[in-house]
Batch of 3 targets.
Target 1
Amino acid sequence: MVPRAQMANDALWSPVVRGLVPYTPGEQPRLSGLVKLNTNENPYPPSPRVIDAITAAAQQGLQLYPDPESTALRQAIGTYHGLDAACIFPGNGSDEVLAHAFFAFFQQTQPLLVPDVTYSFYRVYCQLYGIRAQLVPLDASLQIHVADYAARPAGGVVIANPNAPTGTALPLAEIESLLSSQPDTVVLVDEAYVDFGAQSAMALIPSHPNLLVVHTLSKSRSLAGLRVGFAAGQPHLIDALVRVKNSFNSYPLDRLAVAGAVAAYEDVAYFEQTRHAVMQSRDALTLELWRLGFEVLPSAANFVFARHPAHDGAALAARLREHGVLVRHFAQPRIDPYLRITIGTPTQCEALMRALKHSLSFGAAQK
Ligand code: PMP
């Protein structure tokens, strides 16, 4: 269609939309045959029980709207974590849950405290909702120091534990001290990667009315394609999220997603087996990266964050791509030399190592 009159692309946009810098997800390549280690998906498929449950759900009731409260899923998640269903708020991926939480809790006069290196979507939500963020620098070894978040006026705190893209984790005692140091504001702990070796703060929920923990089924439960995540917290926090959700979309989770997600929580054995396989591969890969001269941050996640002292991060990522391996590079201050490498199957890790050996020998003096 030919436009009748020329108009600037953004002429009809609202000022907020003109100012947005949206989040850029990792590449989802159309080419097959690439070894995809760039978006922290699980290399293993979901439990066969998930597929059975989705197939059964597809055969009945799709003409009807789903339960707006996803009651079955809230019960399954609550049972797994030893919490009442009233403490669980599920959504269409944890990104949606995070967006609702930012809207519900962080539009305050005081700034939201956010690490300077963390999941970059947090700053996008701040822009979208007009939330003032104050960046709190990680230390020289890219660790979060909870003392840096204490005794500052704050309209909220958000951290990822393990952090992304660094993969490093804080012990529970430090999360507890963070919660106690900011008792009058919501502390959101994004535990997207917690099942790969960090301590969860779920157990602190009954004793901390200001704690909101966010989880996803995209990583340790192999369900990135289903789009399910949730927040856990005391019911007064969940009520706020429900108000936002019911002012936005009554049915964020469809019938197939609820059926699949419930089955994923029921198949504990499969979950344990696959997350341990990923952790084992991570530890083996870390050793091999050391042998090639990489510095690797200690990871409690399903990825490692690594740099080679003799190689430029962007150039190395580009060279790996030529060898058919996708990893993630962030062209950002402080983390520019690093690659974030998702843990694959043992076969994928071997392909990565072969590609790395070629890439390192090719570009030896590239830095
Ligand atoms: N939090 C963190 C720290 C993440 O890395 C991701 C994945 N990109 C998410 C949340 C969002 O995950 P999802 O929307 O797939 O649940």
Target 2
Amino acid sequence: MSERDEQPAGEQPAGNTAGAAKQKTALTDCSDATVAELVTSLGGKPFQARQVSHWIWKHGVTDFDQMSNVPARLRTALAENHRVHSSEVHKTDLAADGTEKLLLKLHDNDTVECVIIPDGERTTLCISTQVGCPVGCVFCASGMFGVRRNLSSGEIVEQVLIARTRMQGERRLTNLVVMGMGEPMLNLDGLLPALQRIHDPDGINFGARRITVSTSGYPKQMAKFAEADPSYNLAISLHAADDKLRKELVPTAANSVAEIVTAAHDYFGQKNREVTFEVVLLAGKNDRRIDANKMIQVLRDVPCTVNLIPWNPVSEIVAKHGLGRPTEARVDAFADSLRDAGINVTVRRQRGADRSAACGQLRLQTLESSDA
Ligand code: SAH
Ligand code: SF4
């Protein structure tokens, strides 16, 4: 396992030019006030700072040279110590159903995934918050090798800008889910400013009601997240209502199911938004009648929806832990039990099923192929 923690071969910094570029601050990581200070310090006017920001957030440009109404002298001066974006598309993977995974290369050659998921009129973008994940859920590719680092707010926002540019002319982004690599509650310092920028009418101008953040359950951080204005949707990855079983699936879980459910209640109380509980169903592990019954007991009085997610097999994990995807009949039976008890249930259809479908898999494959 540990050899995968090393910088993958073939993805080393490429010489001096890349080394020098690495030092440059990305403007996606700068506040408007910082950009204004920067522009005026370089002899520009405040309105030119607004033009620069407009190019970044409204037009999604990635190069100063594309900012055609900004004087060339100012563009050159800006480019001296800054760049617009710090990440770029490294690999893409398009599934037959239109789901497209983007593997983004960061300034330090680490990689993260984001996924564009078209579904009828809707187009959902799934974004990451960390390189890897420290939580280590046994079924998840993102957590297999731990966490390398948090993403900066700019790196989080760039995923939206890059995906939006990629879809241009074809589709409009309708939903944003923070369900990619990493545990969002463990990087609130990066996430909250990023969401602010994504929501801001002068930024990306994306409705907060269409943004959902998923956590594997950190009540303290959820309380802090609840203080954010505007209000975002919260999804909690529960997986099991029994503490012992949950701890088997989420080995680092420090909070009990009861504490997590209380946090969901609190979120509803504060925001008047129902929480979604996600349950990744694993054959014979947490998809049994007894598991459904326990979940009914725990969630009966919670204003919520339960989203059942049949596990997307990750071959390395199948080999190591012997986990499996449940049959449709088992998933339906689980859903019916909850529904009969009056709980709202949705079942997630598999998307991008033909290739590296699950969270973290494209990165995993890339790490493996460059390990040789
Ligand atoms: N760390 C956060 C958000 C990222 S994971 C969290 O765990 O909620 C987003 C969702 O994808 C979680 O519900 C997670 O359980 C689920 N997931 C991870 N790997 C999966 C897989 N192989 N198949 C199906 N769902 C998976
Ligand atoms: Fe981390 Fe979420 Fe994967 Fe668990 S499911 S390892 S919390 S990304």
Target 3
Amino acid sequence: MSNYTPQKSDKFTFGLWTVGNPGRDPFGSEVRPPMPPTKSVRKLSELGAYGVNLHDNDLVPIDATPAQRDSIVKEFKQALNESGMVVPMATTNLFSDPIFKDGAFTSNDPVVRAYALQKTMSAMDLGAELGAGVYVFWGGREGTETDASKDARDSMKRFRECLNFLAEYDLDQGYNMKFALEPKPNEPRGDIYLPTVGSALGFIATLDKPEKFGVNPEFAHDTMAGLNFVHAVAQAIDAGKLFHIDLNGQKPGRYDQDYRFGAEDLKANFFLVKMLEDSGYSGMRHFDAHAYRTEDEEGVWDFARGCMKTYLILKEKGKQWNEDAEIQGIVKNLSADTGNISSLFSSYSKENASKITAMNVDRIAYGKKGYGYEKLDQLTTELVLGVR
Ligand code: GCO
Ligand code: MN
Ligand code: MN
């Protein structure tokens, strides 16, 4: 059995904002001191992470002069080099500053939209300078509390215009980054546009360069809305659009908790990790989460270790499930096709349509059949719980 020690090849990444989260919430102030980015980089590397991700302002304060920016970036690059860490993904903070309180790319005000573009282009420059291959767009403030404020159709048009513009900027600069849209149903806005993976995928199809865009789904975001995250990820993989993923823990129907990966719904996380691994997903395993507010710095590192270790345990469990003779026997049987029936509808022909029409299906017998999913799920539960 493995000792579950993370390796660089596991591609585990953390946002600077995750281990650096000071524990502020709407009801209370910071409980942990600021974590210098260079310290996060060094410690995460020591724990086995592959890289760190950042928003522009996680590293460079919004009001830094060009000279200050350059010296901060230089020191950060040195920490990356010394610790063998990379920055695979970068993004822009288009949500904290009050200018974005009514949206960035979907603001009614063209000046705000222009500023959002200006800020994003400079954050893309920073991301490219640090070697990021993926650029995430999380539209935290792109939404409304009241639909009297703007017509959602205009918002789609504005969002599209800005993303098309940025795709051209990327190509013009020769960055060739992949753009990943991150859907979320609400928080901080009352309702956020593009609330689900499916809506993001539908929107991508309307862009000028859809091939440049994919998604960055997050466990917490679908779970908050009571949706099945594994199904959302499956749809993204099926569409060839899983460019990145945000892993964390969340109870349904709550505010965005961003718990340690695996802290909630172990079985859903088991199927998630199994799907990522079985699909050959080669992107980052990014943790967008933070330590409980009860924790000090030691707790933050316990949190980071826990995210990676649980992923590795679930990865091993997935392998075990795929190799378990009893489980596989049941699974194989479920879709058995001894009469090669599926060939009748794998492509349309008049002949196939007539054959299907002529089929004599014993509807009553099929309705009486038991599928054995109680047994299969119990075997899975036992396997996940480690008694199998
Ligand atoms: C959230 C989001 C963010 C984004 C991050 C990178 O709910 O706050 O998940 O953490 O992932 O801004 O785009
Ligand atoms: Mn989130
Ligand atoms: Mn996220």
